[in-house]
Amino acid sequence: MPSLYLAIRCFECLLATSLLFQTLEFLKLRSVQQPNALWSWTTQRGDLAHASVPVRKLFDWLYSDSVHRIHLLLRLAAAAGLYAGSSIVSATLLFFSTIAILIRWRGAFNGGSDFMTIIALTGLMIAHWGQSIVSPVLAWQAGLGYVCLQTMTSYFISGAIKLFSKEWRNGSALPYFLDGGIYGPLAADSVLRNRVVATASSWGFILWECSVPVIFLGPGVAIAYCAIALVFHCLVFAFFGLNRFVWAWVASFPALVYWAGAW
Predict the structure, then answer these.
(1) What is the rounded end-to-end Cα distance, in angstroms, of the chain?
(2) Where are the alpha helices (DSSP H) in 130-165?
(3) pTM of the predicted protein model
(4) CA 100 → CA 30, 62, 115, 116, distances in Å?
(5) Which of 26, 95, 96, 149 has the fewest CB atoms within 10 Å, counting from its CB?
(6) What is the CA radius of gyration of the chain?
(7) Could you give the angle at the alpha carbon of 72 between the alpha carbons of 93 and 17, nearest 5°?
(8) Which residues, including other chains, have CB under 8 Å from residue 194's CB and lie 6 or more apart?
(9) Cβ neighbours of residue 233 closer than 8 Å, sequence gap 6 or more
(10) What digits encode the pLDDT tens for the residues 106-161?
(11) % helix / strand / coil in the chain, to the nearest 5?
């Protein structure tokens, strides 16, 4: 069975990398959050029109440029600190920091990767706060178990949705989605426009995502599954520029491999 300590350290280090990339991107985006810019808080604060005055003042303070910058720098430091090991303080800070950022972006900045980040940080919170109730070993197992379950669910549901979609089963959905990639529509002679290739690729994704429970056959199978997942997420990055998706899901892989062995 994979070492719990090794799984914890891999999980913390990969999560640190994911959070560092995210936070550096948020720091870069501060310029478009200034007054009169595209994502100005003065515009978004209209969402709080029915909130109490103290609540509006709290968010005005939190999302002011100077406080927001300090918040992101603290988040950057806390994320970097995960390389040396997490604590109940860093886990709690990073969790609520992420919630605050998602509120600022009206619930999500980058879709699934935001929610996977929340899942990973929730697992980290369970592992640390749980130690006030159970042993550290059991608390960490519970935290990694939560991440494992949610990650498996994310793959399985994605595969099931494709399975019940006629467009995915016949291959027509794949080139449609790839036409929306960051480098423009697929070339007219792209092999992915071939119906046989598109259908085979679509079914490959469907079967791989729906078969995620096979990881419980053992750590070796789980590692192979995660390797395929890494290739998949890198392809998503290549076509759609979603680098966050790579790191958000990769951070969950130690939990998958650990529980594949613990099972």
Answers:
(1) 9
(2) 136-163
(3) 0.92
(4) 15, 9, 13, 16
(5) 96
(6) 20
(7) 75
(8) none
(9) 245, 246, 249, 250
(10) 888 888 899 999 999 999 999 999 999 999 999 999 999 999 999 999 999 999 99
(11) 80, 0, 20
